[in-house]
Write a structure and sequence with these properties.
By secondary structure, the chain is an all-alpha fold. It has two domains: about 180 residues, Citrate Synthase, domain 1 (Orthogonal Bundle); about 100 residues, Cytochrome P450-Terp, domain 2 (Cytochrome p450-Terp, domain 2, Orthogonal Bundle), CATH 1.10.230. The chain contains 17 helices and three strands. A three-stranded antiparallel β-sheet has the order 1-2-3. The N terminus is likely disordered. Bound molecules: coenzyme A.
């Protein structure tokens, strides 16, 4: 009751906290009306064309672009920290082969805390070391699990390869060509942060209790898993597979919309125009389709985009074309959201560092809509 008494305003107009500013942050700026996205003041289009995932990590964790020696140092640290603890590897070997990869990732990332020497150290220096380890090791975890669920041995990280190239190497066992490595690098850049999205908010709430970074990262992975957030990219591919052919797209989409269903990979809480990350993935989806000679998924995606725009005036988000791109790279659909997590780990950890720098417990109110106070009825008198 005390909450009702102190509640100002009403939640009725803010379902899902739409439009509510819940934190100050210097990390990421989104202009949903103009379709602009900046990391620490740098436009995502410029970063997509000119930067690397390692440089983005530095930018998010330090608030500025690195000098050459600073980037080289971080790159070395990320390479050194890629190997995972034997106990985590043993866990990955033991989990059921049909386990949902995001569930495995969530549990394994939580496990990393058991062996991290800095686990309970919340100083900025320790948080940065943990951010590096978590970002380096998330990719290793998901590649190791993927190989072992297929009866293959995990591949040790290759310190001669940059982050994106090493990821594909650990996944497939062969070194990728430059185009493939650049494409994964771009996926990692585009997903690295996105302001106070659901998973980052979850992570910041956990960090605000002064819980450790691994707890925040684990909670954030749970938040990302759902189909309304990071789980959408996998659902996009499942939808395309279900439709099966470009000739069937129109009927499928119209039937789905007529039933009030949602088309995965479309719409966004913040963007009222196209998500600025989507054009890079659309371009890559087209060029990979041409390179591989398999344009089926790209053609279906283009047709789907046309119809959803026509019917609902809703634009694609980051998840739509990322599905086709990852498929063209030979990545299995159920790993798409894990790759999103492997990239977003850089953003989540940056937000934990920022939250704990100027911390105040995040503890909002609920608008109470339950019954008024009433007497307790003994069990034998209840009707
Ligand atoms: N397909 C069809 N209609 C959609 C839609 C979609 N993907 N996304 C939004 N809409 C429609 C809703 O049906 C609703 O229409 P109405 O006003 O006629 O009822 C309107 O747009 C507002 O949608 P709402 O769900 O209230 O928006 P939201 O801000 O709560 O949700 C998302 C944002 C992202 C959850 C939502 O767009 C969605 O579910 N998209 C699909 C999942 C997805 O791609 N998620 C990844 C996000 S990066």
């Amino acid at each position: 009751m005390s909450e009702t008494a102190t509640t100002k305003g009403t939640a009725a107009g803010t379902k899902g906290l739409e439009g509510i500013i819940a934190a100050n942050s210097e990390i990421c700026f989104i202009d949903g009306k103009e379709g602009r996205l900046l990391y620490e003041g740098y436009n995502i289009h410029e970063l997509a064309d000119k930067s690397s995932f390692e440089e983005i990590c530095y930018l998010l964790w330090n608030g500025r672009l690195p000098k050459r020696d600073e980037l080289e140092k971080l790159d070395r640290q990320l390479r050194v920290e890629r190997a995972i603890y034997p106990e985590v590897l043993a866990f990955l070997r033991a989990v059921p082969k049909n386990a949902v990869p995001m569930t495995v990732l969530r549990t394994a990332v939580s496990m990393l805390a058991l062996y991290d020497p800095d686990a309970e150290d919340m100083t900025p220096e320790a948080n940065l070391r943990k951010a590096i380890r978590l970002t380096a090791q998330t990719s290793t975890i998901l590649c190791a699990f993927h190989r072992m669920r297929n009866g293959l041995e995990p591949i040790a990280p290759n310190a001669d390869l940059a982050h994106a190239a090493n990821f594909l190497y650990m996944l497939r066992g062969t070194e990728p060509n430059e185009v493939e490595a650049r494409c994964v690098d771009l996926i990692l850049i585009l997903h690295a942060d996105h302001s106070l999205n659901a998973s980052t908010f979850a992570g910041r709430v956990i960090a605000s209790t002064l819980a450790d970074m691994h707890s925040a990262a684990t909670g954030a992975i749970g938040g990302l898993k759902g189909p309304l957030h990071g789980g959408a990219n996998q659902r996009v591919l499942e939808t395309l597979a279900e439709i099966g052919d470009v000739s069937r797209v129109e009927k499928y989409v119209k039937d789905l919309l007529a039933k009030g269903g949602k088309v995965m990979g479309f719409g966004h809480r913040v963007y009222k125009v196209e998500d600025p990350r989507a054009m890079h993935l659309r371009d890559w989806a087209k060029s990979l389709a041409e390179r591989t000679g398999n344009s089926k998924w790209y053609d279906m995606s283009v047709e789907m985009e046309r119809i959803v725009k026509e019917e609902k005036q809703i634009s694609v988000n980051v998840d739509f074309y990322s599905a086709t791109v990852q498929l063209c790279l030979g990545i299995p659909a159920d790993l798409f959201t894990c790759i999103f997590a492997a990239s977003r780990m850089a953003g989540w950890t940056a937000h934990v560092i920022e939250q704990q720098k100027h911390n105040r417990l995040i503890r909002p109110l609920a608008e109470y809509t339950g019954p008024a106070e009433r007497p307790y009825v003994p069990i034998e008198q209840r009707g």
